[in-house]
Amino acid sequence: MSASIPLIDKSLVGTTGARPGAMGYLTDTTLCIGCKACEVACKQWNQLPMDNFEWTGHSYDHTKDLGATTWRHVAFIEQMSSDGDGSATLPPFQSDWLMMSDICKHCVKAGCLEACPTGAIIRTEFDTVVIQQDICNGCGYCVPSCPFGVPDLSTTDHKAHKCTLCYDRMVDGLEPACAKACPTDSIQFGPIDELMERAQRRVADLQARGIRSAYIYGDRAVGGTYGIEGLNSFFILTAEPEVYNLPAAPALPQDQVGPAFLTTLGAAIALGVAAIAALRGR
Fold first, then answer.
1. pTM of the prediction?
2. Measured between alpha carbons, how far apart are the two ends of the chain, in Å?
C-alpha cells in the first residue's frame, strides 16, 4: 500500500506555526493497538457519561465518533481489497486493521475560536483551545466552523463541548489522562517543537524500514493547511487522510466567505444584466 498524499508545498513538511511554549499531542497510529484505554481515561477524568453502544454495521468500533461526551475516539478501520472481496494485500508490518485515536486538533488558527460570538472559546497559556462552559450560550456557531467536525452540542445542557487537553491536569504539571493511560506510547504529550522533531525522526525511521507511506498529518503541508498553520494535535499516518476520516486539505470555512460573496454578487449582476437585456429586446 502506498499513500498518495496531497502536499501543498514540500518545503512546509515538518513546519508549524505553533506559538512558543505550545503544548500538544503526537499520536503515532503505527503504535496504536486499539485498546481504547485513552477513551476510558478521558471519560473517567472528565466525568463524561458512557456512550450508548449500538450496532453501526460499519466497524467493530461502536463508539462511532467524537462528540459532546466522547472527547477521545479510537477508530477501527478495516482494510479491504480494492474489489471488496476479502482482505487487502498489506505490508508485513500491518494487519488488516488501522487504529487511530482521534482528538480535537487544537488548531494553531482555530475556526471555532474565531466563530464564537461570546468569547466562550479561548486560547490558553499552553496554546490549547478550550470552551468555557459558564460562558457558552449554545449558539452552535463553532460546530460548522471546525473543518474536522470536533465541537458538538450536548443534548443535555445544549452547550458545545470538546477536548480541553486536560487543562486542569496541565496547570498542575500533569500530562493529560489519555496520554498517561496509553500503554504503547502511541499518544505522546509535550512541547510542540519537540514532538514535531520526534515525529520527523519517527517517519524517517519508518520509511527507512520500508514503510514508505508514513507521513505527518498536522504540519503546514498536510492537515494544517490553508491558513490553519498546523495542528497542536498531530498524527503519524500510513494511508491517505480520508481513510482515517480526516480531510486531505482542510481550510477554515470563514476564509470561504469572501469568495462566496463575490461569486453571489457576480451571479446577481449577471442576472440583472440579462433581465435588462431581455426587457429591452421586447
1. 0.85
2. 64
